[in-house]
Specification:
The chain is mainly α and 47 residues long. It is built from one helix and no strands. The chain is rod-shaped.
Length: 47
């Protein structure tokens, strides 16, 4: 019984870990995608 509870906890932590990892990848990907547009706007405003 004790091992089953331990495996459940580990499985839950693994799911949370994957969620956080994929969320960070998504946020960083969105930032990298938006960066060129932000630079273009900054260059246009500098003129």
């Amino acid at each position: 019984m004790q091992q089953s509870a331990h495996c459940k906890d580990r499985s839950y932590l693994k799911q949370i870990g994957w969620f956080v990892l994929l969320w960070l990848i998504g946020v960083s990907g969105a930032m990298l995608l938006a960066l060129p547009f932000r630079l273009l706007v900054a260059m246009a405003g500098a003129r």
